[in-house]
Amino acid sequence: MVVDTGGEEPERWEPIAGVDLEAYARITALLLRRGISGADVDAVVGALGMNADDWHAASQGWSARIASDDRARAAYSEYYQRARVSGPGATASLRHRSDGDEATDPEVPDADTHET
Q1: Nearest Cα to 24, choosing from 2, 43, 45, 46?
Q2: Exposed, middle or buried: residue 93 (CB in 10 Å: 0-12, 13-18, 19+)?
Q3: Quick check: pTM over 0.85?
Q4: What contacts 58, CB < 8 A, 6 or more positions away?
Q5: How much helix, strand and coil, in percent to the nearest 5, is found in the chain?
Q6: Whole domain around residue 60: which residue ranges?
Q7: Cα separation, 42 vs 64, whole angstroms
Q8: Residue 105 in contact with residue 90, Cβ under 8 Å?
């Protein structure tokens, strides 16, 4: 899906800490689907090749944008629903990508098997 920005306020769609809205929705769906929360999130995003601080900044930033912007909320909802339906493969893009290539989920620890 390509978000229709309507040519206005392009900063609304700018990646936060390198994470675009689609990647944020896909990673969020992955975390929820696997029941991953708390400290395990850092391990999972690390396994996905992302710095935990970047993920937390992106998560906070996108949460704020989604809460205050109806168009961002609608786009997030669409991306999130698609990621939930697609299951594995939902993390095709962790960071903003301009090539549009698809990929599959890298191996990430499940919440019930992650060692602390």
Answers
A1: 45
A2: middle
A3: no
A4: 15, 16, 17, 18, 19, 24
A5: 50, 0, 45
A6: 13-86
A7: 20
A8: yes
What domain count does the chain have? 1
- Let me know if residue 97 belongs to a domain: no
Tokens of 7: 């040519």
Two tokens, residue 94:
């962790």
Q: Is residue 77 part of a domain?
A: yes
Residue by residue, pLDDT tens for the chain (116 residues) are 555 655 667 788 899 999 999 999 999 999 998 999 988 999 999 988 899 999 999 999 999 999 999 999 999 999 999 998 876 554 544 444 334 444 344 455 454 444 43
Evaluate whether residue 40 is within a structural domain.
Answer: yes
3-state secondary structure of 16: strand
Q: How far apart are CA 98 and CA 30, in angstroms?
A: 22
Q: What angle do CA 31, 95, 18 make, to 5 degrees?
A: 110
